[in-house]
Design goal:
By secondary structure, this protein is mostly beta strands. The chain contains one helix and 32 strands.
Amino acid sequence: MTSDSTSTGGSGTRRAAWALALAATVLPGFTATAHPASADTAGYHIYAHGFLSDGIAGYHASDTGQPAPIGARVPSGAFNWPQAATPDGRFLMVAPGSNPQLIPYAIGAGGELTAGTPLAMPDIPVDITFSPDGRFAYVVVGLQNAQVVAVRIGADGTLTRHGAGTPFGEPVDGVASATVSPDGRQLYAASLLPRQLLVFDIGPDGTVSPAKQRVDTGLNPIFPRVTPDGRHVYVINEISGSVSGFTRAEDGSLTEIAGSPFRTGLLPHVTSITPDGRYLYVPNMGSGHISSFRVEQNGVLTPLPDVDFAPGQPGVFAESSAMSPSGEVLWALGTDPMRGGEEILRRFSVGADGVLDLDESTAVYTGTFVADGRTMTLVPGR
């Protein structure tokens, strides 16, 4: 691993075409916490893996200062879309596609990862999300005939299947990404080929009921996200280059917001939202900038100035993002085609008006390759 802020050359046209080729292998959301008054200087951990490489790179980071590597990379499996941490920050879950399984890693006080016993999955894992209390993981599996696999998480991180999988319902459902509402009552899953967002109820026992609603989206819906107050749901339309927004009713059902969808850059991907729910950020895998929005009370997204991910490095575009616990810093992970697809980690400050400002001093090359999927996770320190 190296830390490097030197610009490299490249071709934006070639990168866009290269990203479009990866779009067929796409892959939600990160749950927000309270917004403290000042920047987080105590620190947190950031983990990154690559879709085309085996290994998780860990960093101790903060809202200020340079990220510091956490030991050597640990195995993750290859062809790996998702990773995500439990809400309490005790376990990191990784799910490789070449050997379908869910691998739990205990997160030590210093951010070190210790592997637990994997749990076999019935099909290729595409995304992972959790119940707010951290008792259950929900793994979306299948390139078609998708299903939600509920997994119970023991106090020591031991994983067990929690009932039978819940099918999405249609053979073309698949390559899906999901998130759980802040109240834990619904799971929202974006099904790629049908171009739909599905609503599932979650019972008090953690089981998932059959889909009760399907709403239309744009082309290639991915990475749904519920606002921290639970009032609105947004889903990325990867090929359409937009975000569809929905108002969430008391029973979890959805109604599209007036003016939706809202335009982004090319190949938008993993979004982040500030803990207070006021600002939404969308990295674009096919454009050089991060799209920024103010979230209005009625759910309408008002565009803010875009910010370049890697000025002076044509073709280096962001894919994944994560918000710091303070809400004052956005981290973004991208891919550098001039370094064989190596991933690069960058930091942006969030202004009082929601406008991002790039920290030019922070550009960390991770030694992992190809950001495509939920390939970055931020875990608050304990």
